[in-house]
Specification:
The complex is a heterodimer of chains A (about 100) and B (about 120). Chain A has about 100 residues and is an all-beta fold. Chain A has no helices and 11 strands. In chain A, the strands form 2 sheets. In chain A, strands 2, 4, 5, 6, 9, 10 and 11 form a 7-stranded mixed beta sheet that branches. The chains are: A mainly beta (about 100), B mainly beta (about 120).
Amino acid sequence: EIVLTQSPATLSLSPGERATLSCRASQSVSNYLGWYQQKPGQAPRLLIYDVSNRATDIPARFSGSGSGTDFTLTISSLEPEDFAVYYCQQRSAFGGGTKVEIK
Amino acid sequence: QVHLVQSGAEVKKPGASVKVSCKASGYTFTGYYIHWVRQAPGQGLEWMGWFNPNSGGRNYADKFEGRVTMTRDTSISTAYMELSGLRSDDTAVYYCARDNNVGSADYWGQGTLVTVSS
């Protein structure tokens, strides 16, 4: 069973800053790695699939990278609407989430 | 466009069962797997299993094996998730989501709150 560990748990940044979120797998995984954004009271929204492919209508400031056991979601310049919780997922496992909050 | 519409909130007593429905529209229902994911209050996302609406095949998370049943009615493009032996820690929002055929969930239902309380 794969375990996904996200870090940091909380990221405090200002609008316009760059956000770098990490997701580490307990064993090497295939490229079926996705990232989701969730805001309070809403369902998750797919941002990235297959490690680095942006989902439909996702802005270019979101990018994904990585391979093997280490994956990264980067938000190049935070917009006010980007403050939320982010989850990584590989098939049957979700990470614990990273909350991106306003500093 | 693609929509997944779930049934309404439920309140159940410990030991009871709950069945949540997920009606799909805007795409070929049998062409995409359905995931079920839950989220306890203030907690993260927890994967429960996936279901193949075409074949009826399924894969449940070990944690739910023996308590969860995923089914479908292709005539009305609806998937179902039934959870039995409810406990207070099953209180959560339950989501259905469509798999995009490469392991990620690209469309989600609005969620169904299931509250388990005596």
